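Allow me, if you will, to draw on your knowledge of protein folds for a short while. The matter concerns a single protein, recorded as an amino acid sequence and a row of backbone structure tokens. Kindly check, if you would, that the fold set down in the tokens agrees with what the sequence suggests. You will find the record immediately after this paragraph.
***
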Amino acid sequence: MLFSSLIFLWLALPIIWGGSLLLPKVARNGWLLLMSLLVYAWGGVSYTGVLLFSIVMNYGVGLQLHRPTKKLWLAAGVVVNLGTLAYFKYAAFAVGEANDLLRLLAIPTFELPRIALPLGISFYTFQAISYLVDTYRGTTEAQRNPFRLGLYISFFPQLIAGPIVRYKDMNQQIDQRSISWDKTAEGLQRFLYGLAKKVLIANTLAAVVEEIFALDFATMDAFTAWAGVLLYAGQIYYDFSGYSDMAIGLGLLFGFRIPENFNFPYASKSIREFWRRWHITLGAWFRDYLYVPLGGSRGGEWRTMRNLLLVFLATGIWHGAAWAFVIWGLWHGLFIVLERQRWWPLENVPYAFLVVLIGWVLFRTESVALSLDYYTAMLGLSAKTVPFDWAFYWDRELTMVSLVAVLLGWPWGKWLFSGTSTDIPESVSGTSTDVPEKLPGTFTQILQITFLLTLFLLSTNALVNNSLNPFIYFRF
């Protein structure tokens, strides 16, 4: 169920939130677990079986991680988690590649039944693995209540598209949390801020992006190609960060503080800085559960470079089952390796933004061949071009939204909003955020409340009149 849908805003959310407020504390976890499973099942009942299997399996393995054989249990748990993810997400791709090779060798191919990708499986699988590894390391104790572990894995605000939450950041909140007026106000403001980013900015940009990327790249002119990827950069940022804002806001409504996920990534001066600002929880996960176990920066420069490339190879694979994602991940990894060299001269916003833009072409097309055609158009090398009808699409609304997108995508826009979680403890967030800072004063608060209500009404109106409402990261 989309957070940016009318049925969620006007029916599901009031029921879930109202029930949580009215029920006694002892019943709130059970209510949230039930509602989380129902919200998830809305996207496909068959997916729920995979989620329940993950909960039960990881609960059982977690209980064994105090035994002398805990290393074997950890290995088994990680293999089952990754194996489940690999089957649903990568089996079709692997079979397709194998069949291409078999055709070259004139060997009969084989077919695989169509496999539906369960929503959010990449996210909740990584959360489950972090629970097992942290329990194995002694960072946290195994959860002996299956319903509490089930709530951690299935908590609906961040289940489908993150942020990726560590168990150690949630377990105490599951057992002991409070719902206060301050948290409620902060959560509502954060949710509405994210809703506006998604509905008013990302969806507006998406309408034009869809038209541009549906064109024949072989006849695309350079201006349209650059405009398309620039608009997509805005779309994916406001789409994904908007979802994260809504997830964090919903968490606050139920008494949870969820980690931050974005911190003005397009203000980065390097690709290393970009990944400290973009999808922060995923980068932190790979750092703690892959990069450090591989040896991190220990063992010399060559081993460090190898570890970094492996991490970004895994990052690309995590995002999708296509060679384009593999190359996208290695593209970022290559520049991070280069930036470690003393002789590397570039460290500025235009350089980092250009590298990210070039990568977004691979990310959007999901095809190496199509990306090469798009790059050709960006360079103005198309043999014959057909002009795009910009007069039809570039109207007053797109102009205004584009300007707002530029303003809010830079740290100077922090003061425009308030009531957000800039006071999150470092143990939870671990980073500064791209959420606005609070402004004091009753008059300012009245203005902000009026502004947020206006955003809500505008967003609702946009949802009524516009059917284009995709969340890009739902695919992962």
The longest helix spans residues 70-104. The mean pLDDT is 88. Residues 16 and 35 are 7 Å apart (CA to CA). The two ends are 15 Å apart (CA to CA).
